[in-house]
User: Fold these one by one.
Assistant:
Number 1:
Amino acid sequence: MDPQLTTTAELPLPVNAARAVSRPVLGALGTVGRFGMLLLELVRALPEWRVWVPRALEQCEQVGYGSLLIVLLTSAFAGAVASLQAGYQFTGNIPLYVVGAIVSESVILELGPVMTGLLLAGRIGARYAAELGTMRVTEQVDALESLGRNPASHLLLPRVIAGLVMLPALVALADATGILSGWVVAKSSIHITNADYAYGTHRYFRTFDLWYSVIKAEAFGAVVTVIPCFVGYEAKEGAEGVGRATTTAVVAACVVILLLDMLLAKLLL
Amino acid sequence: MIELKNVHKRFGHHVVLDGVDFTVADGETVALLGPSGTGKSVLLKHIIGLLRPDVGDVLVDGESVPGLKRRALTKLRTRIGYAFQTGALFDSMTVYENIRLGITDETCYGDRDFCRARVKECLRLVNLSEDVGRLMPAELSGGMRKRVGIARAIAGRPTYLLYDEPTSGLDPVNADAMDALIERFQKELHVTSVVVSHDVRGSFKIADRIALLHNGRIRAVGTAEEFMAAKDSVVRAFLERDLEVAAEG
């Protein structure tokens, strides 16, 4: 029989089943391989600092300054809600200073880094995936390569560096804002004294908590930049492909942030 | 010299190039004709190493492009200018910055005075005024984008110029102006050019030789006169449609 005329319907069932299983497995392995290659390209682009440093500074402004307002707003509300709920649960049961401890610890360990990470996955992740996806489908990436320029040092590394530098800074500000807003709300809602709130905040605080927050911020900074860069860079098939890449980038970054959040808690706490 | 030897390329199940043999001599302008979707742009991307052949080899100045290491490939690309179909200008940069990025010599790239003079010269070569350098790509018309794309491609003083559909989407007047530009480069810059097109009339005007890509293979190669005299049914069918339209016009 001419092999070109063989259709899948004519193949034996085990062959069809093997094909059905192997195709997605091979596809997934291919994606992992290409992701690994992208990471390698990022490392290899590091010596080209004359190219990526000025571009990284531009990206830092977009990531940091551009996200500042929304990060502060969200963390202020997160701290306020944590304070209100702690007050609601503990008033009359245990000493009020515990509210200070609960607010500060939950903001530093969880709310600050995770909410900032998720926010930036939407804000920066979507932007990076759409930008790079559009550049890919309009042949701008090919044009860069044709000029003998390295897309990793021109496009990818500046974005990743910006995430790694700015996320910890944003998380530090988010932590401080969350604790302060929790303080203000606790004072007005459950009438906690400044001394009690400050005592509670210090009572259970360990310096490692801050390091933990920074480690999470670094990890999330990598996630919200590397994944969208990879997905955008791989975009195909015009506007629809760019749209698909943008959605995939945001969803994947959010899921990986939540997974990493659990993993880091298990490993570091 | 550019040589493609038995180049095969497929994307999934779709065979695009099916054993292409193709040569471009130094200083020559070759027009690569063929209907849309026959793999003309794919072939061009093989020459500059943006795509690798599944089978076969691509040689530029005797160097096997698919076998080149990263640094050697980068060096090769500094000798090749690629004018993309839509210009492929970087949206976030001004026209000046786009063209400046085409200056592939790093020492020259860092010299602001040199860059200013070179960008001005490239804009002049593509018949654009210096003021265009201040504009963003979004502010340009389709024809201007193509010309800026060509200015960027020539900024590094390449030995080879690859044009991907330089006249597609242009009105006849601008298409003629573009053809004149390609001819002028041939005379002034003495570059070796490959022009991918489906504009038969324009290709006859600018090219030393013409090649027709059909079903993933080079169906015919020759001068304009040889093409006009060809008996091959595919060649005739391809030529007649365009030339009839030209005659009617």
Number 2:
Amino acid sequence: MPPDEEHRIRVNIDRLVAERGMTLTQLAERVGITQANLSVLKNGRARAIRFSTLTALCEALSCAPGDLLSLEGS
Amino acid sequence: MTQSTGWQTPIERKRDWAREAEQVFWLGAAVLIAWVVGRVAWSVIGPVTAQVPAMALGITALAGSIPAGAQLSAADDHVTVVLADPTAGERLLAVLAVVPQPLVLATVLALLARWARSVRQGATFAASAASRLTRIGQVTVLAGIGAYFLETTAASMLRWDVLPNGVASSPSLASVLSSVGPALWWPTIGACLGLVGEIVRRGVALRDELEGVI
């Protein structure tokens, strides 16, 4: 798929944050990224995610990558 | 009281390459403009010289055909004809025979200086910087070749004007090739500028790609 085409990856940050009683500000601080970048990631506007960021997110949310990402329409 | 250790930690100065490039470009353009002004002034007040191929014509025939008052001095395979009292047209041709290419080079250097300034004020890897560099490359090729042919034409007309007594000049293949050779510098310089522009363009694309990576 060309990189500029629409993707169907859903980032379940909102749900995981709510389940763990965290705020997005706290998550951004724990992961070490800005709130702006977390918002870009949360809203599906990121082109890609680094393995290091994914690792930090999974550690902060105590989840697996599969819990964080899902394919819409499947 | 602290004692001096006798040596100092070297201060790392962050080099502003765009500023230095801008200064070098402006300096080069200023030197060329000064040379052009000097050359034009000399063409107005000084004698006019023209290079005439001696081997093709033969010194004996040439010596009998030059205008009264002109001097000859041979260098390599060309003879320099010096006109002590040239006409306004001959002075104009003398200027056009040497000035256009340095003028184009000065213009290109000024454009590059402005490009370096825009890079300093903005970003190196910006789409505008890449397209601007490509345009400068195109201007270099077109204006450079045009200036070269203008110089060549003016020099030929001056030669024709200096030798009015029916002395025909038939250039050899070697002389034609050697005269066309310098014109190839302009496409080379333009291609180099275009290549740098393409590298910047790819850098822009790479940066855009990385901006969306979190």
